[in-house]
Amino acid sequence: MEFPEAVEVAVVDSRIEAEVIAGLLRSNGIKVGINADDAGGQDPALQLEGVQVLVSPEDAPAARKLLAARLA
Predict the structure, then answer these.
(1) Whether 21 contacts 15, CB under 8 Å
(2) Which of 26, 44, 54, 55 has its CA 20 to 30 A from that of 3?
(3) Model confidence, pTM
(4) What's the pLDDT tens digit per position in 37-72?
(5) Is 2 part of a structural domain of the chain?
(6) CATH for 41
């Protein structure tokens, strides 16, 4: 993801769940980044703070709307 000020739109328990969310957002034209402190996926036990799903500030409202619709 290439934007300096990323906005967190979700924090989930696993990289897999973050990838599913990222796929949903990407399929709707939103650029997505994932931030996980898990040694590059090699040590999932390090994900104590959760896995962040990040988007640009401009895409944040649309991303939150899509996520809210999927959870409803």
Answers:
(1) no
(2) 44
(3) 0.80
(4) 755 555 555 556 789 999 999 999 999 999 999 866
(5) no
(6) 3.30.70.1530
